[in-house]
Write a structure and sequence with these properties.
By secondary structure, this protein is of the alpha+beta class. It is about 15% helix and about 50% strand. The chain is built from five helices and 24 strands. The protein has helices at about 1-25, 30-45, 90-95, 115-125, 370-375, and strands spanning about 45-50, 55, 65-70, 80-90, 105, 105-110, 115, 135, 140-150, 150-160, 170-180, 190-200, 205-215, 220-235, 240-255, 255-270, 275-285, 295-300, 305-315, 335-345, 350-355, 360-365, 390-400, 400-410. The strands form two sheets. It has a 22-stranded mixed sheet that branches. Strands 5-8 form a two-stranded parallel sheet. It is elongated, with a radius of gyration of 31 Å. The chain starts with a helix and ends in an 11-residue tail after the last strand.
Length: about 425
Amino acid sequence: MTRRRSLLLIAGLVLLALLALAARMALQPDRVAGFVLSALGDTLGLEIRAAGASEYQLLGAPRLVVREVTVREPGAATPLLQARRVLVSLPWSTVRSRGERLDITRVELDAPVLDVRALQHWLSRRPSGETRLPTFSDGVRVRQGRVLGDGWRIDALDLDLPRLQPDRRVQARLGGRLRLGAAQAETLALRFALAAAMTRPGNGAGVAVVGPLTAEAKDWRLHARLRASGPLRFEDDGLTIAPLRASTAARYESGDTRLPFAFALNAPLRYRDAAVGLAPGGFALRGEDMVPNLDAAGALAYGRRLLLRLDGRLARWPQAWPALPAPLGASQSPLEVSLRYLGAADVSDPAALRLRRDATAFDARFRIPEIAAWVAAPAGAGSPLPPLSGRLSTPELIISGARLEGVDIRLDDEAAPKDATAP
């Protein structure tokens, strides 16, 4: 009897060992990862593959780590998302619901690359109301990400989102570098490190951002601190913030030039078809010395090119600017200003300007960085005339005691543009 019991015990131990070995083979990390990613892909209508080593944990709460991840629509040439490493931790309730619940504990993405055009194509094919926003009780973390748009991209993107839950305030920190223009012909780079807040995760909720920005182009740099807020709405073809209220305290730098100023706007912001626009809007510029006080209305937009259209007025001529000849300088009328620009994001292309006070009109073509450098130059340095081409017409001028009537003056700076595209 004792021998029989011993044999049964040995047989039981062998059977348990075989079952454990079978379970281990069946639950190898790569097998588990493949099964989970395939099920998730079927739910979302995506192909999700992981080429690198995988890990999983079932004790406590399920956690899956996958590497070298590629996500794409079936048959698409361009991946929607790629990532060096993805960690997903979720509660058992989400597993048992088989996707009916979207409660997730935490997500981490290392070196992800998101293609905006591919993402928009996938979203446009999703059934209405089927793309639900998940909750993240322990947040989302992104490190060294990239976002690829049409004519723009974001590099070195870091995101920390501590928590995302329904009807609760959302806070996040994000930083990175926005680059405008094609990779081979970049025109403007914008570094940012922003704190963001949202009243709740959902359409129509209030959103606010604050933090430093640094814009850099070939010949100039702009340091600014941004404050912006408004109600955010996600739509099938983009997003809107209407109205967007924003203000900056900034400093323009070019060579030895330093021009501090403040700028504010109130306009609806719209993002559609890889283009962002602010129109119609109100804009205000305030400064000292060489920077005028300007109030204007118009539009600002960027797609493949930057568009700027402003119509406003200067309440008075800045004292630091060269004095206007009489009787133009003695007039108390506001100076009407119209500015048009359509070109590269670094504002290096020609701009068109029209000034009008009473019966006097001045039309000019110039490049903004060159004018900014001339305005900020010390008195007596360089040319007394600005680097522009244009035409001045006025019924009367008094110069050195001489009275001129029916004046028509043309300026033709060889270095200034002869024409400018008027948007």
